[in-house]
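FORM 7B - TANDEM STRUCTURE REPORT

SECTION 1: FIRST PROTEIN
SEQUENCE AND TOKENS:
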Amino acid sequence: MRNENLHPKTMKAIWNNVVVADSDDTVKLEGNYYFPENTVKQEYLERSQTYTHCPWKGEASYYHVKVNGEVNTDAAWYYPEPKEAASEIKHHIAFWKGVVMQE
């Protein structure tokens, strides 16, 4: 199983000094925290046309993170239909590109 752990602590994803996600139910996978989609503030997300493929997780879709008039291109991703091996991240969103994870 590739899941490192269900992370029991409250985690926040912060970009441009704004909390864009906050959850005590994240999934940590390959060093990334995946937030349940209902804990991510959707007003800070804008759909991207970017897609990537992971051999064991499936096809990822991306969001731009937009805060205070600034755009962080493709800074969030999710797997709409993850493969069975990554089923625990279905309906979860992860961040990178300078989005800071904080307990």
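SECTION 2: SECOND PROTEIN
SEQUENCE AND TOKENS:
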Amino acid sequence: MQEVIHHIKSKEAKQFVRAELEFHLKLAKNKWMSKGLTEADAENKAVEQMGNPIHLGRQLNNLHKPKVDWILIALVVIVMAVSFLPIVALGYTGQIMMNKIIFVLLGAVMVYGMMIMDYRKLEKYGWLFYLVGVLILLMISYFPTAHSGGHLLLKLGPITIESLQAIPFFFLAWASFFNNRKLKVWQLSVLFLLPLYLLLNIPSLSTTFLYLMMGFIMLWWSQLSKKKVLFITIVPLVFSMIAGLFLLSSVKAYQLDRISGFLYPEQYANGSGYMYVRLKELILAGGWFGTAGNKEFIQAAHTDYVFASLTYYYGYLLAALLVLLLSFFLVRMITISTKLNDSYSKLLLIGGITLYGCPFIYNVGMMLGLLPLTSMSLPFISYGLMPTLFNSFLIGIVLSVYRRKDLITSQIG
């Protein structure tokens, strides 16, 4: 055992190989003892079966080297470089450019830090992550110090805390909860509804949407039976439809106006439909190669509406390449998830795919007028520290899973 372990460089792999060797040696020993050998002879036979320890150690070292997904890392580097284009096109220099550089560097640190962290150690802290997420929402909901876009914020000096910052904690918590067979359906329901209530109380529609999508999609990869999963999915949908019918009569005029602006933007171009018409004009004006040199005013040009500004300044060709580039992240994450046998790692990948994919698809959809406008950033491209760290965290988790995807526990083996 010591000779084999001596030839393995990875500390994590050493622990894994030791457990695997002990497991297989015990199986072999029991097999020989069942054939009538004494315990000592059975142990010798089991060890003999394993072969040369030096050769075995070298083989296992090559097999269990920590994996690095260079494809995903290359995508992160490229997309972070592309994220500077809106800043350049808009002519921002000085503090905004410096902030952008700092955000990208911090994002890179987050990706690397999460990659080298052993994601398997996070599972046992599910309850702690849940409590931290709830605490963040409670502070924002009941002790807000600022407002932005109609929802509440909490400012602590230079630090701004918003509801989106609670989502990574709930993401880790639900990966742990859904991998726990001991939790009952009613317990999971209560745990899910409390954050939902707090999010609706803030309110932040984009964060609430992400929380709901993450929860229900991860639910389908949980340890619950498919009958229970189907029941948990259908019942809320039915109640939501019934509640929606009752609430139709209480819809306020400004809410109807927003709906009408989305459905018929040209008819409401001077009111709620203005931004839909404006975004359409900007995207159409971009052409294939953009309108370099023209400095049109575009609202939230480097944040929520960055896709429209990129299309306007750089054209359809760059916009199509950007969509393709961001889609590669999804394709890569889905590919990795299909190679996993461990339920916890698969839950993390499914949650990561959801939290990355939903904002990406929604942001592009609302820029094209297919979805209502809301505060939803484009992954890695939108300006801001929290969106950058949020997506870097997700990619770092994926890289951590990929790095250890071959280190499966002996019980699973």
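SECTION 3: OBSERVATIONS ON SECOND PROTEIN
The longest helix spans residues 306-337.
The chain has 17 helices and three strands.

SECTION 4: SIGNATURE
Preparer initials: ____
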